[in-house]
Design brief:
mainly alpha
Amino acid sequence: MSGKDGGDDGQKPQSVFSTLMADGDWLYIKGEYKKAIDRFTTALTLKPDDKNCYVGRAKCYLKMGQSENALKDAEASLEEDVTFFEGLYQKAEALYYLGEFEFALVFYHTGQKLRPHIQEFRLGIQKAQESIENSVGCPSSVKLEIKGDLSCLQKDEERVRPITAIQHLKKEKKQQTQKTPKSEKTIKQLLGEFYSDKKYLENLLKDKDLVKGKMKNGEQLQDVIQSSLTYLDNCTELWNQEKPICARERDRKLMQQKCSKLCPIAPSEPALSLLKSLDDFDAELTSGNAESNLKKAKEVMKTVQGWSEKDAPNKKKVLGSLHSCIGNALMYLGDMEKALDHHQKDLELAKQCKLPEAMSRALDNIGRVYAQIGQLTQAIEFWEKKIPLVRGGLEKTWLFHEIGWCYLELNRHKEARDYGVRSVAAADEIADEKWQINANVLVAQSEMNLGNFESSVASFERALTHAKLQKDDSSMNAIQKALDEAKQHLSQ
């Protein structure tokens, strides 16, 4: 870009913001929550009041167990619009994981009233009610009964200071109840497979030389380990109060993601050094230093290849991650042939180690390489293999859309329409308006090419409605033009 055209310069901040948002959404899908937070934080420096950006970051904080930060971002997303249902849902979720089940129940009900068709609010109401009923030592006077139209929530005082109200409730609970000390046996039963992780982290704290080390962001390793132990303690307390098995299993999966990043495969200095290097790679890549990223990854690859199986039992898993890093760097540099080779090696190692998440990552990257070089049939082949491995509604929505787009480009309009419909259903399930726009447009385009103009008009109109809710002017204009064209065909 030369930057000579003043009009182009005016577009740059919005373009950069959109890119950062897309990167954040993508990293969230991949489970790289800390990196996603960095993207959303940078995006907020460009548009400090963007409510969708706050929601995106709140979801990441929640996945990392940082419920207080998630609550703050959810509150920020609701500052200008207290009826923003995505913000309400994230606020309810944050309150739930803070153990404030009564307040969470209020906001689940509020969201359901606004969007009764979204099942997440109904499920939230159910789990909050179960947690309230099963809470240990929770006096009936603290429980909330939800009736009427919840108009009390519209008071300015309550909208501005909900966190203060929660703090008051916490004080009241502390005065009325005390935590019962749990035996080591009880803790072991509650944590299950993560009890060994807790013990491992406690032992790490005893290594005075190790805990003096610092993370890439300057945070002391001691603080990171202590934060993880606190998180485990909080989960122990929450699980001690909850009976629903599904809630425990969900939290255990969340904890597994957290602990897997904090507990090295082998408690050795090379392993700790590797973790820091891997963290650096992505920062280098996204800042445009792909060559530096590639050089570092290759250096670490040589180091890992020299490790013995005794020092690093999961050596193949680490090598797979490195092949993925190198492949992504090569993609940025435009060397698609070599990038494909590394991503295929990542897939081979994932299959050997029977690692579903690594297989999903590799299949995704291979599909992206093929899509970028225009080999759409191959992209479809690998992305369709990824479908059974998909985790979560957002990833499902994206994957169905990309496969449908490939079919559309190949003029296989029926398959494009079918995947578009699946993408719409997944987007509706998670109430993601951005993807509801994209998915409905895909269906509309496919229906138009199939000659089903009435269905095309209906899908374009749904996409336009979501674009208006998002106040996305560029999407609204593009969709309106396409809608007018579809209506012309329909009237002929």
